Amino acid sequence: MKEKLKHIIKEAGELLKEGYFSKKEVNFKAKKDLVTKYDVGIENFLKEKFSEEFKEFNIIAEESDNSNVEFKDSIIIDPIDGTTNFVNKVPHTCISVGVYKDKKPYIGIVYNPILDELYEAQVGCGAFLNKEKLEVSKEGDFQKALISTGFPYTSGTNKDDLEDVIRKIEYILPRCQDIRRLGSAAIDLCYVAKGTYEGYYEMNLKAWDVSAGLIILQEAGGEISSLDGNEYKLFEDKYIVASNGHIHNALIKNLMAK
Ligand code: LIP
């Protein structure tokens, strides 16, 4: 299944690339949440191909009405993760596809066609970037850890969310090496998987932002949890906390402090 998925996702990558370099019309789903005809076009392309090839799976996708789709044997699609980057030609943008069997992680693929980086993992088989095996960093000292995060779209409308973001950054920044905000949750998780970042956290993400990246990170030896350190539940948890495992407790402790 993974090879077929990759073939289709690479084809869809050509559409993303074409859109990235062209002049685009932008629409708003919410005050800060963008969408283009490419998000919809790539999603439709993937949905059509996946439903032909993988009839035993239903499809949950960012730009679709998923209200009647039960999460079980599911392919979860983000046609463009990092849409703001895509629109502004920041090259950290990707297609993210996570496959779940009976709600359990099975295959994750994150493809950035601009940098030609394909991250992939199947549960039990390891994680790879363009065929090179991925491993999380071994750093265990939080003060030396490079942490990544993201800012929720709700920061434009919800004062509590905005204040929470600022409080946590204010507390964590002096206590770690530094903080990055790259703009694609799927790629952020892959960057923890390849050892670039020691940790990553963000609030208010949707299942399609993280469904593939979390499988890739787990297969690279990383750890993922909710803010209280319990198992992260797709579609349910407000916060995702991800790390190389070695700094996980410290990251949670520092996030919970504020
Ligand atoms: C985005 C994320 C980004 C996050 C945004 C948003 P989109 O996904 O990947 O990192 O900070 O809140 O969820 O909308 O580009 O697919």
Number of strands: 14
> Which overall shape is indicated by the principal axes computed on the Cα atoms?
globular
Low-confidence parts, pLDDT < 50 over ≥5 residues?
A: none
Percent helix range: 25-40%
Q: Mean pLDDT across all residues, rounded?
A: 95
**What is the CA–CA distance across the termini?**
43 Å
Bound molecules: L-MYO-inositol-1-phosphate
The protein's oligomeric status is single chain
Instruction: Describe the sheet with the most strands.
Output: 7 strands, mixed
Radius of gyration equals 17 Å
Order of helices and strands: HEEHEEHEEEEEEHEHEHHEEH
Q: By helix and strand content, what is the structural category?
A: alpha+beta
Number of helices: 8
> Numbering strands along the chain, what is their spatial order in the largest sheet?
3-4-5-6-7-8-9
Report the β-strand fraction as a percent range.
25-35%
Write the layout of secondary structure elements.
Elements: H1 2-20, E1 27-30, E2 33-35, H2 37-53, E3 58-61, E4 74-81, H3 83-88, E5 94-101, E6 104-112, E7 117-122, E8 127-129, E9 132-133, E10 146-149, H4 159-172, E11 178-180, H5 185-193, E12 199-203, H6 207-210, H7 213-219, E13 223-225, E14 239-243, H8 248-256
Parallel strand pairs: 3-4, 10-11, 10-12
Antiparallel strand pairs: 1-2, 4-5, 5-6, 6-7, 7-8, 8-9, 12-14, 13-14
The protein binds L-MYO-inositol-1-phosphate (LIP).
